[in-house]
Amino acid sequence: MAIKTIIEPFKIKMVEPITMSTELERIDFLKKAHHNTFLLDSDQVIIDFLTDSGTSAMSASQWAGIIDGDESYAGSRSWKRMEKTVRELTGMNYVLPTHQGRAAERIIYSLLGGKGKTFISNTHFDTTRANIEFSGSNAIDIPIEEGKHPKLIHPFKGNMDVKKLEELILKYGSENIGAVILTITNNSGGGQPVSMQNAREVGEICHKYGVLYLQDMCRIAENSYFVKQREKAYENISYKAIAQEMMSFADGAVMSAKKDALVNMGGFLSLKDEKLANECKNLLIITEGFTTYGGLSGRDMEAIAIGLEEVFDADYLHYRIRSTAYLGNKLSEMGIPLMLPIGGHAVYIDAKEMYPHIPVDQYPGQTLAAELYLVGGIRSVEIGSVMFGKYDENKKLIPAEMELVRLAIPRRVYTQSHIEYVIEVFAEVQKRVKNSKGFKITYEPEFLRHFTAHFEPLK
To answer: Which pLDDT value is given to residue 1?
Structure first.
């Protein structure tokens, strides 16, 4: 008998209350937050899909590990456990702990970057791009063509265009390439996975020209699920072994442990080259902490070590990917335009198609994010021209490739009934589409404007 219902492969031992609100209250909350979902208070939100970063529920084993954490400043056993786990996973000898992923990015990209340097990625995420551009470097995205078309079905839309990669290395000169960064899965590209073949080919090109090859591996376990399901050669290989092989092609890896390590804080930088690692360690000590804690408490490191084991559990990954797909498939059946196929950690709505009457310079993604909050208290995030748009010399918007809204689903947090509620909210939002208006930006910082920008609805 084929059972269709997806059940969570865990029991609930602790609960956290959700503060309910009315639409009238949320109108006031959103106005005071300048119509930016990042500026809402958490107790003003019913379902929080803003990010899957640091929002996971930890397991009983992780909480037990927290009690056992060794808080020694230097050489704690919790560090030794984390270091061993990361080395085993990445195959890289030099591991630098950091308080989160963007701290690792700042360390490595400030050393590799600078004026005249170019970084190439399938798609740089927001903090990656910001750290690179803050150093004075140029960041170029080269996803495969299929990855730019939301409706198109392709098993690995997160792949990098390897033909363009070689062309860019030859154009700029290998000595001027700071690094090639493969983001796994491709978050800004709709949470789409990267194939093992693509990871291997990127490595072959980088090593041919002597260019440093880094992987952003914060969702490596979820990507391994797709490789196992969609690349025939890996159907009988374990998820962890798939991850290990994928990382074997790279010279280094950055991880925000707040994703697939199932913790609320932490990250690391992992490298093969001793000289580069030593340079990074100097900056780590100056800005984060000593090399055996790097801004993390011993209890954080214990939780990371345990989480990096738990995340490759077959039952967990099956539930994680299927439950995300359930939400996406239900929305697609309703006629909500999505990035297809559904990714691992989030469902991405194509706001440009959902609101065809709202031009890109009026930010249709911000419109959808606002509507989801007003109707149902759902917090999401725009991944379009607010997050990635730029201005030309005449201050005219250069829009992003796509206008997406991401519903990033925290790990082990929400149940089936929460997801059913989200589906009902979308049905109501769908009824209001024709009367929805765009937004204008009234305040924005130079970098990462989506975090703190202020908006006003257009009349």
So the answer is: 62
